[in-house]
């Protein structure tokens, strides 16, 4: 049964393919670390190169998959160091990663996230190897109604993030949902909020959104500090560089839970690392945040989204390899790459192309080990990036992101839009809003609306379809639990705990 | 403090200047270029790569062709760009497909844009629409499906990867119209791309998927799906030989999806002809035939003026069709 894997290791362990896996891991880490490039664009940039070099299919797939998994590792760097997410899956990493860096723990934070990423990916690759065909069947059972329920669950989990100011979290999320409605309506093809600008027809690009919200607003904040001659660097000096084993062990359950969550969400076609890391983070906050320290630099708050986004990257290979259906935007491009080689991924691929499938899966194992070995020592190196003054670092990163975004749009409109969103983000921060709910509203809102409308078109307008299947009922119950349990539990605690303590 | 502020300004200026300089250097070189009017990785990207890889393998261009992306407005941004800014660039081709012709017909590129605003260059391949059901569907052939639809149009859930008014919807609407069913009564669900729609079909969320023939080969091979009809002129060969056309089952519907290119309106006749000849030469090479097959495309040979005529006629036809199915007035 595992012949293909043994054969695959034979393929993946040839010197050329080992070298390519390493190259992919290295480049992927870089692409992920640079905001604005990300895995999709990294693969799109290198796909023609792999083809032009005349690499065989399995080799170029190994290279491209290395970039994909590598960029999920790299995405955390700028999240932790600069509070600017490197890609979609790394937004949640900013919440606790950056506060840790501010405390002088940038090195351990990077190290911990490398270990969490490794474990997350390992769990998911094991899942992929053992259960891929079985899981694929379950994944397609997830229809529009179930997706809608999943989004309700994700929004309900967000109430965990509300913290001090629930109203502002709610407003932020709603703003995000509003922004997600810009563009051609996915059901009827009607234009919404596009003001006759064709640049807005496709909606607002995710990269434009996060670079604007996070990086541009950061620069504006720094400018404000510079004009007022404030101290803008509240960074503590860099302390120790390596993560301690005890810190990893402290997070072990958080990492394992999040790995499973990430893998499961990664398998579902149409959702990706951003949803996976958001659900993992909020779930983990519910489970293990006893002292309300999530968001202020809690190690578990960093480990959870990191494990989840890597697990979801590996999980998204499941529908691609077994059904020929991409599980994420990035696997959609990998599918395209395979088509250049006359390989049509699909139900027959395990049988017809055992070398390619086996080689790919084996290279995921190998690449993952490489990434860990590459990223642990790099943590120390990258942590020193913080010694570069922020007023130089953040604008440089922003300019890189601008060039990257321009390259991808060949249009200045995207840059202007990014600046406008930056001013918007700056105002939000000045008014004390957290940016994460806005981004989550933006990502989840679009998915929620699309799936609600798909479900209703399937049923002909009958809302009962939303809670007809066992899966969706389960998700509704879970959503209700995460939304209301804390309220009830809080009251119960208030009622019984003081009494219990009293002698 | 003032000292460090002036230093800051200089450094920021230096960094910005450096970035701009890199941009300027990049802008000088002029290799052949193909604009994919979408984000990386989509169908247009692959259309560009088909030309880029093919032309390079066949040594029909001296320098590798650069593929750049101009997403926005389902292709309208690139159309604006080529009609307005780089209207005479002899090294620039832009990827297009039947979808672009449909959008032109529906006025989605802006009412001011007409099909004659660019020079249609040629197509390198074509795929055909397909009516797809799950292997355990109750309908054995197109006629049975159409009868069920005629009886109660909203009893059949159709889905595909495009919005109402898109190509995928047009396939369903034309089928309905061929049997005198009002297309607006169809129960149509739009997904984000064909992959998601196919997943919904396999997961029993929708019953009929209006997809593209060659794209479905893996699922066809594995027996997961049954293709009730190909929307082509005649039966296709090879693995598709057993799939009847809609026409031979009595429903006169064809939906070819060509993959081709256009150039700016003010490109000289000589340069335009040079590119048309290049593509024609390419389409005749054996290595390209393999590449095309791998991309899941059937041969199509229409180049230069011949192709320009074809697209112009197609847009006119689509304008009429849109009226017929009730999309436009």
UniProtKB/TrEMBL annotation, chain A:
Which residue ranges does UniProt annotate as crossing the membrane?
12-37, 43-68, 109-128, 134-155, 167-184, 204-223, 260-281, 323-343, 355-376, 388-408, 415-444, 464-488
Location of the DUF112 domain: 18-440
Keyword Ligase applies: no
UniProt entry keywords in alphabetical sequence: Membrane, Transmembrane, Transmembrane helix
Query: InterPro entries, per this entry?
Result: DUF112_TM (IPR002823)
UniProt-recorded name of the protein = Tripartite tricarboxylate transporter TctA
Q: Which organism is it from?
A: Salinicola rhizosphaerae
Automatic annotation (TrEMBL), chain B:
Keyword annotations for this protein?
A: Signal
Q: Which residues form the signal peptide?
A: 1-29
So which domain of life are we looking at?
Answer: Bacteria
Name the SUPFAM superfamilies for this protein. Answer: Periplasmic binding protein-like II (SSF53850)
For whether the record's keyword set contains Nuclease, the answer is: no
Q: Which InterPro entries match?
A: BUG (IPR005064), Bug_dom1 (IPR042100)
CDD domains the record matches: PBP2_Bug_TTT
Q: Which Pfam families match?
A: TctC
**UniProt KW Signal keyword:** yes
Stored PANTHER family: TRICARBOXYLATE-BINDING PROTEIN, UPF0065 PROTEIN YFLP
Q: Which family does it belong to?
A: Belongs to the UPF0065 (bug) family.
What's the name of the protein? Tripartite tricarboxylate transporter substrate binding protein
């Amino acid at each position: 049964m595992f012949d293909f894997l043994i054969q695959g290791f034979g393929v993946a362990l040839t010197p050329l393919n080992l070298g390519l896996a390493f190259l992919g891991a290295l480049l992927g880490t870089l692409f992920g670390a640079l905001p604005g490039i990300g895995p999709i664009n990294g693969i799109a940039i290198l796909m023609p190169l792999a083809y032009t070099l005349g690499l065989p299919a399995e080799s170029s797939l190994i290279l491209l998959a290395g970039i994909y998994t590598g960029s999920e590792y790299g995405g955390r760097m700028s999240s932790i160091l600069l509070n600017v997410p490197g890609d979609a899956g790394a937004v949640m990493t900013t919440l606790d990663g950056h506060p840790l860096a501010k405390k002088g723990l940038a090195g351990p934070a990077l190290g911990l996230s490398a270990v969490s990423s490794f474990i997350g990916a390992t769990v998911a690759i094991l899942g992929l190897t053992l259960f891929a065909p079985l899981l694929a069947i379950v994944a397609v059972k997830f229809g529009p109604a179930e997706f809608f329920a999943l989004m309700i669950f994700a929004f309900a989990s967000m109430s965990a993030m509300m913290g001090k100011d629930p109203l502002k979290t709610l407003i932020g999320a709603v703003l995000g949902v509003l922004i997600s409605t810009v563009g051609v309506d996915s059901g009827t093809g009607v234009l919404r909020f596009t003001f006759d600008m064709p640049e807005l027809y496709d909606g607002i690009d995710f990269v434009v959104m996060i670079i604007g919200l996070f990086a541009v607003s950061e620069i504006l904040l720094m400018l404000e500090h510079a004009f007022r001659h404030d101290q803008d660097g509240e960074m503590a000096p860099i302390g120790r560089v390596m993560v301690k084993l005890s810190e990893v062990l402290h997070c072990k359950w958080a990492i394992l839970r999040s790995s499973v969550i990430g893998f499961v969400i990664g398998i579902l076609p149409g959702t990706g690392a951003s949803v996976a890391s958001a659900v993992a983070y909020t779930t983990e906050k519910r489970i293990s945040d006893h002292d309300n320290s999530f968001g202020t630099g809690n190690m578990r708050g960093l480990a959870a989204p990191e494990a989840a986004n890597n697990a979801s990257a590996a999980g998204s290979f499941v529908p691609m390899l077994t059904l020929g259906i991409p599980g994420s935007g990035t696997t959609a491009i990998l599918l395209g790459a395979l088509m250049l080689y006359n390989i049509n991924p699909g139900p027959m691929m395990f049988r017809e192309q055992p070398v390619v499938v086996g080689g790919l899966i084996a290279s995921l194992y190998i690449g993952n080990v490489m990434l860990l070995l590459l990223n642990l020592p790099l943590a120390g190196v990258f942590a020193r990036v913080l010694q570069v003054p922020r007023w130089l670092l953040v604008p440089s990163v922003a300019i890189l992101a601008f060039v990257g975004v321009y390259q991808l749009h060949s249009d200045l409109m995207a840059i202007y839009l990014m600046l406008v969103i930056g001013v918007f983000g700056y105002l939000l921060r000045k008014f004390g809003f957290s940016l994460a709910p806005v981004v989550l509203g933006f990502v989840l809102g679009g998915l929620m609306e699309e799936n609600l409308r798909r479900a209703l078109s399937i049923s002909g307008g009958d809302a009962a379809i939303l809670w007809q299947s066992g899966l969706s009922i389960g998700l509704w119950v879970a959503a209700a639990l995460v939304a209301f349990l804390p309220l009830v539990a809080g009251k119960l605690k208030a009622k019984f705990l003081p009494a219990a303590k009293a002698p | 403090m003032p000292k460090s502020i002036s230093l800051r300004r200089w450094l920021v200026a230096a960094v910005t200047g450096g970035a701009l300089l890199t941009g300027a250097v990049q802008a000088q070189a002029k290799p052949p270029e193909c604009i994919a009017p979408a984000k990386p990785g989509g169908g247009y990207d692959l259309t560009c790569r088909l030309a880029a890889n093919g032309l390079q393998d066949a040594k029909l261009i001296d320098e590798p062709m650069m593929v750049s992306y101009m997403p926005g407005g389902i292709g309208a941004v690139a159309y604006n760009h080529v009609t307005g800014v780089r209207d005479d660039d002899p090294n620039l081709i832009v990827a297009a497909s039947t979808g672009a012709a449909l959008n032109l017909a529906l006025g989605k590129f802006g009412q001011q844009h007409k099909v004659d605003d660019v020079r249609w260059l040629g197509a390198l391949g074509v795929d055909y629409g397909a009516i797809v059901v799950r292997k355990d569907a109750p309908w054995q052939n197109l006629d049975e499906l159409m009868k069920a639809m005629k009886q109660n149009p909203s009893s059949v859930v159709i889905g595909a990867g495009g919005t109402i008014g898109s190509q995928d919807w047009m396939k369903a609407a034309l089928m309905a119209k061929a049997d005198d069913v009002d297309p607006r009564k169809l129960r149509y669900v739009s997904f984000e791309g064909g992959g998601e729609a196919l997943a919904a079909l396999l997961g029993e969320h929708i019953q009929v998927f209006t997809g593209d023939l060659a794209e479905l080969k893996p699922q066809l091979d594995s027996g997961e799906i049954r293709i009730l009809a190909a929307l082509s002129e005649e039966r296709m060969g090879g693995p598709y030989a057993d799939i009847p056309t809609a026409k031979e089952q009595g429903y006169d519907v064809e939906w070819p999806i060509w993959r081709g290119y256009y150039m700016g309106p003010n490109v000289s006749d000589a340069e335009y002809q040079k590119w048309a000849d290049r593509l024609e030469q390419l389409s005749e090479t054996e290595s390209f035939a393999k590449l095309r097959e791998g991309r899941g495309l059937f041969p199509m040979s229409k180049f230069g003026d011949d192709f320009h005529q074809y697209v112009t006629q197609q847009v006119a036809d689509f304008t009429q069709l849109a009226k017929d199915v009730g999309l436009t007035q």
